[in-house]
């Protein structure tokens, strides 16, 4: 059995009530729920939350909220993996024969069902997979800024290296994380070398952590909707 787990705590600071805020006509979490349901991959789409208003919204859009997330996993410092692992452990204790888990962010409106399907398919050759995208500029040419505003290269040895001769670099794009039960229960992390990356094009990637991010994301969503990509 596969399950999807959507972490959605109630205490977001930079964008209050972010997980249930209207995003182009729907609570943003509803878009993630709909994406998960549209794949047909999941026996359960579970929202892990400590907030009853979020839980109510999640249920209204087809997700389950079989437990309330404990306060120890709902602070400003707990990462995504422990939340996914907690949901898996709860389901196993409930007698559910879970084999794989997909953690999907509540604020991932650019994630498509086909992306989740590619992540699931990647588990045929690895114990975990997560969404990544490329940096727009070679990270080897990154600059540091000192207290006086002067700029120096992090890696001065690459000052004269042609960009096409530098290896492509990726980063986590904050959309989804697939893993086997064994991977999660062993306490492993997604960026420690066992998980494979599922590439997402940069034009469908946007962190949503600030009001500026939100405005940009809604504009991107409308444009991608007009082009038929969403």
Summarize the structure.
The chain is of the alpha/beta class. The chain has a single domain (about 1-130, about 170-225), classed as Alpha-Beta Complex (Spore Coat Polysaccharide Biosynthesis Protein SpsA, Chain A), CATH 3.90.550.10.
Walkthrough of the structure:
By secondary structure, the chain is of the alpha/beta class. The chain has a single domain (2-132, 170-227), classed as Spore Coat Polysaccharide Biosynthesis Protein SpsA, Chain A. Helix content is 29%, strand content 21%. The chain is built from six helices and ten strands, in the order βββαβααβαββββαβα. The protein has helices at residues 28-39, 52-60, 80-93, 113-122, 181-185, 211-227; strands spanning 2-7, 22-23, 26-27, 44-48, 100-104, 128-134, 143-145, 151-153, 170-180, 196-199. The strands form three sheets. The chain has a six-stranded mixed sheet, with helices on both faces. A two-stranded antiparallel ribbon has the order 2-3. A two-stranded antiparallel sheet has the order 7-8. A hairpin with a 2-residue loop joins strand 2 (22-23) and strand 3 (26-27). Helix 1 (28-39) packs across helix 4 (113-122). The mean pLDDT is 96.
Give structural attributes:
230 residues; alpha/beta; Spore Coat Polysaccharide Biosynthesis Protein SpsA, Chain A; 21% strand; globular
Low-confidence blocks of residues: none
CATH topology label: Spore Coat Polysaccharide Biosynthesis Protein SpsA, Chain A
* Largest sheet geometry: 6 strands, mixed
The 3D shape can be described as globular
Question: Topology of this structure?
Answer:
Elements lengths: L1 E6 L14 E2 L2 E2 H12 L4 E5 L3 H9 L19 H14 L6 E5 L8 H10 L5 E7 L8 E3 L5 E3 L16 E11 H5 L10 E4 L11 H17 L3
Parallel strand pairs: 1-4, 1-5, 6-10
Antiparallel strand pairs: 2-3, 5-9, 6-9, 7-8
């Amino acid at each position: 059995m596969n399950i999807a787990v959507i972490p959605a705590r109630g205490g977001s600071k930079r964008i209050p009530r972010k997980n249930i805020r209207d995003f182009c006509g729907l609570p943003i979490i509803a878009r993630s729920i709909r994406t998960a349901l549209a794949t047909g991959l999941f026996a359960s789409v579970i929202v892990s939350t400590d907030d009853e208003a979020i839980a109510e919204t999640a249920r209204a859009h087809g997700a389950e909220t079989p437990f309330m997330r404990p306060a120890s996993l709902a602070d400003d410092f707990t990462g995504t993996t422990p939340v996914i692992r907690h949901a898996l452990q709860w389901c196993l204790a409930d007698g559910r024969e879970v084999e794989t888990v997909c953690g999907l962010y509540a604020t991932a409106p650019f994630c498509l069902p086909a992306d989740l399907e590619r992540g699931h398919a990647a588990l045929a050759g690895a114990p975990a997979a997560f969404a990544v995208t490329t940096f727009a500029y070679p990270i080897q040419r990154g600059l540091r800024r000192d207290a006086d505003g002067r700029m120096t290269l992090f890696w001065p040895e690459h000052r004269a290296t042609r960009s096409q001769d530098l290896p492509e670099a990726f980063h986590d794009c904050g959309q989804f994380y697939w893993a086997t039960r064994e991977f999660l229960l062993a306490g492993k992390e997604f960026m420690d070398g066992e998980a494979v990356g599922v590439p997402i094009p940069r034009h469908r990637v946007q962190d949503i952590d600030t009001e500026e991010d939100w405005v940009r994301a809604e504009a991107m969503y409308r444009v991608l909707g007009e082009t038929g990509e969403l």
